[in-house]
Amino acid sequence: MIAAGIMLGIINGTQSAVLDSLTAGADKAVELAATLCGSYLLWMGLINIAKRAGLTEKLSKMLRRPLSLLMPNIGDAAAPVALNLSANFLGIANAATPFGIEAMKRLAELNGKKTAPSKEICMFLALNASAVELLPTSVIAVRSACGSADPYSIVLPTFISSLFAAAAAIAACKLFEEIRR
Amino acid sequence: MNYIIPVGLILLLIYATIKRVNCYEAFVEGAADAFPTLIKLLPNLAAMLAAISIFRSSGAVEILSRLSAPVLEALGIPKELSTLLILRPFSGSGALALLSDVLNTYGADGFIGLAASVCVGSTETIFYTMTVYCGAAGIKNGGYALPAALIGSLAGAVSGIALVKILLLM
């Protein structure tokens, strides 16, 4: 991707702008990691309190069965997976990412030393790729800033189409799983 | 909605105290465990964001959107939205900025504006999410999760536009 971008830049005669953007992108990574750092440490600290109190185990046990419809071998990852999906649903992005990272770590542990991602990992990634969200707050904010008469009018179609997106992603995952086997 | 997190946190702390958990100690321990993961994540983020940034500034987004416009139009997606849809999986803030452009140009409550809003709202920054999650888990790539996610996004966009026509404009 980087190579293609640089080549296109040379063809278009914008090579200096392209190289600037390369460093800008790397800078943004540090910035992003720093922003992520705070909320990640916070939520992992809180989760550890819940873990010591035995809450995450209870949550995992409760949700293992329903979640295993999508991810058969879910084990300990059930709690962070459920927390990630509900945080996404409620639109709490800075909590969703930490839970998602934790879920991925546990799913990878279950997958052992294999380099190919398990079907549980693929399914989790695909679920996170469709934004099933109660209120798409950022879009609503942009709409009202742009002078929409009814910024909320898109809530229902957005919600339904994100369900379609999730269903299609799940179906595609199942299909690819069959093909790989 | 705004009460969910604070109330949840209070309940968590009360429950933990009843269970005789040392909250401060447990918090610090959990946060300390989280730090190495973040360090592992940084190189992945640097590579991915540099690639995305170059992808945008080199004009690749425009070329891809011009190439994909006929295909998207065949699926019922207006050509005004092709750049937005190509950019969306790479950059959330970029897509929101472009959405604002689209709304200012075509009006927020017309067909193009409504369709653009629904498309942005029902899809995700797939490449970013994949980078962060795969980096954290120490996996090279998401295997077939990426094509599955892209198929999902396309289904979201196509159904979103159909729903705008059915629910809002009929």
Short account of what is shown:
The complex is a heterodimer of chains A (181) and B (170). Chain A is built from 8 helices and no strands.
Description:
The complex is a heterodimer of chains A (181) and B (170). Chain A is mainly alpha-helical and 181 residues long. In chain A, 76% of the residues lie in helices and 0% in strands. In chain A, helix 1 packs antiparallel against helix 2 (15-52) and helix 6 packs antiparallel against helix 8 (155-180). The longest helix of chain A has 38 residues, at 15-52. Chain A starts with a helix and ends with a helix. Chain B is mostly helical and 170 residues long. Chain B contains eight helices and no strands. In chain B, helix 2 crosses helix 7 and helix 6 runs antiparallel to helix 8 (145-168). The two termini of chain B are 32 Å apart. Chains A and B meet through helix 1, helix 2, helix 5, helix 6 and helix 7 of A and helix 1, helix 2, helix 5, helix 6 and helix 7 of B.
